[in-house]
């Protein structure tokens, strides 16, 4: 028996792969089971063109055997087997794949496809085994052969005894170390969990002898150990069944079995795509937000399968961030895999699937908004904030995708409305989409800045999320209508007594200039208000930064001291204005006091902090004595 060396390149690749390419050791079992499935598929392909072969699916299976005493794990299949040349070519030269060569010779038919294409997954066995022994008898051959290796130092091939066609792989599991527990790969429950996780939808039965206890015959309180062969995989994935066969309960059961969430999904999307890219997908819109959704621990992404074999638990590239709440899976025959099957090549196929999925999700949300409003509002209360973040992110790149899905509470109905619904009922003379920002709807209702807009009968959208104004700044216009804050310096509404207001403003120009000088550095201007009806004073803003945006930005860590350009507006029809005029003419010290009080009053209305609360309380006391 001659010991042969791996090619130099193969030796280096084996060492690198064992130590670094695979991030989870447990996938070795997925790889070996996938190879066994390929071997059975090869018989199926041959039977399609060879009349002497009859493919009876019930005769083909994969068996996993754990022997704790001898520390061996065996994977046995009834597949096509390998000749000596096959063992030499497929296992002696790393990255030369027999499955890939076979695939080129035999086009996949009837939905079958060859999983392994790069010939590397087999060597993941060395991550958990000191010795790997492969005994195989090829279909049509009288002789079996045994391939054996301890890793990068080489391998041997010799004749062996094997009665049936197929392949048996025996792993001599490594001994435990201080840092690594290899016993888990001999544990029945752990093996069952790995197979369920990665290989549940392999097309052929995966069997294992499972231990149990039963009452001894003829006794009541005595039990005996026994073993029973069980099939561990379900074989037929739900996404490959016809939609007409499935009920809402089937989808809900799948949602919970896959641990996508503890809630009940609001909607599911079942996709079977044939075209430029072939894939199946089941996607879910959850009812409630995961507790860690806005934490760094949350991982977005869909489960990704290649022909029923789990490749990635969370494929982030399949979902845009703004749809990161979606749960589910994708299975495709069209994806190219790299040497480890751990990472996908970010090729055109993956991008096409991601684009199609994005379109499907948006379509489902639009349909829910139109036909199941109550359900959509439940969804929106949980994830509307994420849609707004999507509008704001990447400088508004995704606004066209998301703007029709946005909703805000309205001053008219006190319930959620879409931008389209707002536009549809705007009066003809209304120039802008008006909004007001604040901590709550109740607080916004009390803002003096809303008086003129409300008096004109115009609807106001309530922005109570800190992201709302920032998102709207990215949209800028919706159906050719600009957004306008009720605190904006120019509301685009003409006063009924415009000429009279301008005349009074000019008459009191010196008063306003004096007050502006008193508040230098705090406001950019003091002026007569066109918006106030009952309230004596308010703050408005010039420029893009509103007062609410100032508050939000300044609350962020390491953020520069952002300031809105504030304007103090005085209601000339209020009794207070008469006191201001009188003080300007007779008592400048009293005017100074009034100006400070009105400015601080305006700050309090906006929820802004007072620069000197003690001085403010002292000023109040001064006017009381």
UniProtKB/TrEMBL annotation:
Gene, per the UniProt record: htpG
Organism in which the protein naturally occurs: Paenibacillus chondroitinus
Major localisation: cytoplasm
Subunit structure: Homodimer.
Lineage of the organism: Bacteria, Bacillati, Bacillota, Bacilli, Bacillales
InterPro entries: HATPase_C_sf, Heat_shock_protein_90_CS, HSP90_C, Hsp90_fam, Hsp90_N, Ribosomal_Su5_D2-typ_SF
Similarity annotation: Belongs to the heat shock protein 90 family.
Chain intervals for the UniProt region annotation (A): 1-341
Alphabetical keyword list: ATP-binding, Chaperone, Cytoplasm, Nucleotide-binding, Stress response
Protein name: Chaperone protein HtpG
């Amino acid at each position: 028996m001659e010991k042969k060396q791996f090619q130099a390149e193969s030796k280096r690749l084996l060492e690198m792969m064992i130590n670094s390419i695979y991030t989870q050791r447990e996938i070795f079992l997925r790889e070996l089971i996938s190879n066994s499935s390929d071997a059975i598929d090869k018989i199926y392909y041959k039977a399609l063109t060879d009349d002497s072969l009859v493919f009876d699916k019930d005769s083909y299976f994969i068996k996993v055997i754990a022997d704790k005493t001898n520390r061996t794990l065996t994977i046995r299949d009834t597949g096509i087997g390998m000749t000596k040349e096959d063992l030499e070519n497929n296992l002696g030269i790393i990255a030369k794949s027999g499955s890939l060569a076979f695939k080129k010779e035999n086009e996949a038919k009837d939905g079958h496809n060859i999983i392994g294409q790069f010939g590397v997954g087999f060597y993941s066995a060395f991550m958990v085994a000191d010795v790997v022994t492969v005994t195989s008898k090829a279909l049509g051959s009288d002789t079996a052969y045994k391939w054996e290796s301890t890793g990068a130092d080489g391998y041997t091939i010799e004749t062996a005894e094997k009665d049936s066609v197929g392949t048996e792989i025996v792993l001599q599991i490594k001994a435990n170390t201080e840092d690594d527990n290899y016993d888990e790969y001999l544990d029945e429950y752990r093996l069952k969990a790995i197979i369920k996780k990665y290989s549940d939808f392999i097309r052929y039965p995966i069997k294992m002898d499972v231990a149990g206890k039963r009452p001894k015959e003829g006794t009541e309180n005595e039990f005996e150990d026994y073993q029973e062969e069980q099939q561990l995989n379900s074989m037929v994935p739900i996404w490959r069944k016809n939609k007409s066969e499935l009920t809402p309960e089937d989808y809900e059961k799948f949602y919970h079995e896959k641990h996508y969430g503890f809630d009940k999904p609001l909607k599911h999307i079942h996709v079977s795509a044939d075209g430029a890219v072939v894939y199946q997908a089941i996607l879910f819109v959850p009812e409630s937000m995961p507790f860690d959704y806005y934490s760094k621990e949350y991982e977005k992404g869909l489960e990704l399968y290649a022909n029923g074999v789990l490749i990635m638990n969370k494929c982030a590239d399949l979902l845009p961030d703004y749809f990161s709440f979606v749960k589910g899976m994708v299975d495709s025959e069209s994806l190219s895999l790299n040497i480890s099957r751990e990472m996908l090549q970010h090729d055109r196929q993956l991008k096409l699937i991601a684009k199609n999925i994005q379109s499907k999700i948006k379509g489902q949300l639009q349909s829910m908004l139109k036909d199941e409003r109550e359900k959509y509002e439940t969804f929106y209360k949980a994830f509307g904030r994420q849609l707004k973040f999507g509008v704001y992110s990447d400088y508004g790149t995704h606004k066209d995708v998301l703007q029709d899905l946005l909703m805000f509470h309205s001053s008219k109905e006190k319930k959620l409305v879409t931008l389209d619904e707002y536009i549809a009922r705007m009066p003809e003379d209304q120039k802008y989409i008006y909004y007001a920002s604040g901590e709550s709807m109740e607080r916004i209702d009390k803002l003096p800045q809303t008086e003129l807009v409300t008096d004109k009968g115009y609807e106001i959208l309530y922005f109570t999320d800190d992201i709302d104004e920032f998102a709207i700044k990215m949209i800028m216009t919706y159906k050719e209508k600009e957004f306008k804050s009720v605190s904006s310096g120019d509301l685009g509404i003409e006063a009924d007594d415009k000429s009279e207001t301008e005349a009074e403003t000019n008459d009191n120009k010196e008063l306003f200039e004096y007050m502006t000088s008193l508040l230098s550095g705090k406001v950019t201007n003091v002026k007569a208000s066109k918006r106030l009806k009952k309230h004596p004073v308010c703050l408005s803003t010039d420029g893009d930064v509103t007062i609410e945006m100032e508050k939000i930005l300044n609350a962020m860590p390491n953020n520069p001291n952002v300031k809105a350009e504030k304007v103090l507006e005085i209601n000339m029809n209020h009794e207070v204005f008469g006191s201001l005029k009188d003080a300007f003419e007779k008592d400048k010290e009293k005017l100074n006091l009034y100006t400070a009080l009105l400015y601080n009053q305006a700050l309090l209305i906006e929820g802004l902090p007072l620069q000197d609360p003690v001085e403010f309380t002292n000023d109040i006391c001064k006017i009381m004595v």
